């Protein structure tokens, strides 16, 4: 049952948002925070993403059953089990923020509202990709608040970079559902602009994301290891876009997971080396 639930919410895709939360955490703490804070950030991230994905599955239950690419999802668990998972993960997220600090607890309903709202946007706007980016951009801001307990400029810059990154790769991912979304009356940049123009938009978003990441490095006073990681990030994004240009579903899926997982890992490793090794030398 647990294995089916993990497949239902695509738990493996947690690797996309978590590294940016951890990177923000490392910068906010100038290294590793207390282990309690670290553990609570990870638990909050996992619970929030689980709640968001479960809400998405419930909101799209009938649509996903009609889409050949996603029809299998709803053979994994019942709708009742999904509702229970949504309630449990949402409650666990709010409870976890209570243990972190008062500000995170007060903002927890806002965070849930943001991550839930994305699932409704493709019904009325072609900019739904940016709302998904906004949902994931909550993670680095939340991690910073968990460590410092107040807002600062660097996590907002990092959140904007995450928004651009996610919007870009979601446009690429949406090319797989171009025909279905058009027939179902759903909205996306791919439906509105066509595949070729949408892929050019995705490229532009990712190049802008690299510029914003460099701005984050400047605002957070990061050093050479972080900027070196951006070179590897650029290489992964180039690979992703070249794979997407083939318009092959299998290639898109491979590039989507491998490239974006690599981006997250390289990003957090660059910050780890900068904060944990160089600054202690």
Please give a quick description of this structure.
This protein is 81% helix and 0% strand. By secondary structure, the protein is an all-alpha fold.
How many structural domains does the protein architecture include? 1
Query: Would you state the CATH class?
Result: Mainly Alpha
| Approximate helicity band | over 70%
Q: Give the N-to-C terminal Cα separation.
A: 48 Å
* CATH topology call: Tetracycline Repressor, domain 2
Number of helices: 13
CATH superfamily: UbiA prenyltransferase
**What is the ordering of alpha helices and beta strands?**
HHHHHHHHHHHHH
Low-confidence runs: none
Q: Determine the strand fraction and express it as a percent band.
A: under 5%
Report the principal-axis shape. Answer: globular
Q: What characterizes the major β-sheet?
A: none
- Please state the second-level CATH architecture: Orthogonal Bundle
What is the radius of gyration? 18 Å
Return the structural class. mainly alpha
Overall residue-averaged pLDDT value: 90
* DSSP, total strands: 0
